[in-house]
Model the fold of this input.
Amino acid sequence: EKQISAKDQLIKEVQKEKDDLLRSNQQLLQKVQEAQKQYQLNEEKVHKEFSEKRNFHLNQLNEFKCRIEQLELDKEKQRQDTLAQIEAMQPLQLNNEEREKFEQEINQLKQKFVEGNEQNKKKLDEKESQYQSNDNDLRQQIEQLKKTIEQYQNNETRNNALAAKAAQVDALQSELAEAKANND
Done:
């Protein structure tokens, strides 16, 4: 009777541990499922944001490149126009005052072009830097999500171990029931 009582007590303890493990396993499983769902949503969001930002920055870069090309074309056209005017006036032998005036205009146009070109290059560099920073941020978020997945996979491994223990508990209960039956 003492053995049966001890075995009954052991069965109750094992059953309680099994129930606790099953509850814990169920809770962990729910958490893993929620985390996987959240991870998937986060991953989709990150990819969407990354794609939108990348497209936005690429469009801006293309726009700046087009503006720089247009400024270069405008500069060349102005230079050609100025040369054509000077060549047309050469037979007239420009006096010093007119020559200085044209040189000043040419220098002003050059200065405007250089300033505009520098501003556009500066903006382009800023946009590229911003794009790189955003790209780095997104990569860090992706790494963090990978770590989270790894953690959830570890939790799932623990869940499997708990399930194995629950199976052992069931086997022990069966043995105990057989032992009781044999003792009766």
Notes: Residues 2-183 form one domain. The chain has a mean pLDDT of 88. Residues 14 and 65 are 73 Å apart (CA to CA).
